[in-house]
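In full, the data:

***
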Amino acid sequence: MGISAIILPKMIKEYSFFLSCFFQLIKLFTFLDGIFLTLVVLLIIRLITHRKKYRVCSVKINLPFSLGNITYEPTEIDRIVAWKLYTQLKTRKAALIFDENYDVIDKIYDSLYELFQINRDLLMNLPLYEIERQPNISDLIFRVLNDGIRPHLTKWQLDFHKWWDNAVNNPDNKDKNPQDIQKCYPKYTELIKELKGMNLELNKYAEDLLNIAKTSPHAIQKSKDKIKKPIPIQPSSELEKTNRK
């Protein structure tokens, strides 16, 4: 009988033992992984079923330009859009009262034109599920743009620009500053009055947008019937005298 015939069965037996232990360890780890996965799933289910529910506070917006008011519950996207518009208005001449000594009407109209484009971009980037809610922030923006700002621009912008282009190219106005030139516009007084009125309304609009941006959700507490504890009735003075006797 050779040495290999003696050693080989022994080696096979040892390897079989190690393989058996290895597979047992694999089964153990598989079992532990299953337990861990089950715990994770249960934890997720608990978080979903027991999470706090939130409701958004309703906010009432008094629309500028005497367009009435709307009351609705802003979403997080509404708040972001409102803040972006607020910062645009507060950093532009369009929402600041016109200063006749320093401001130029032509620049105000340029600022309003840019504001329209910014509003369009914000509206186009709104997700569809947001515009399905009624009302929503797009209703507010459309009303202000189309029923508030646009009528002023339709009435004044083209007429003033036509006059302005001729005035600034007139040799007689070569040494005049823009503020003095624009005061020669035939309807200057009427235009400035309406322009200042629009500035004031846009400033109010900016404050409404800020209110929307500051609106935050509050946790809804489950209503529980609280058992009122009986309040002891204080004995009257006559009853106290009787008890003392």
Q: What stands out?
A: Residues 11-51 form one domain.
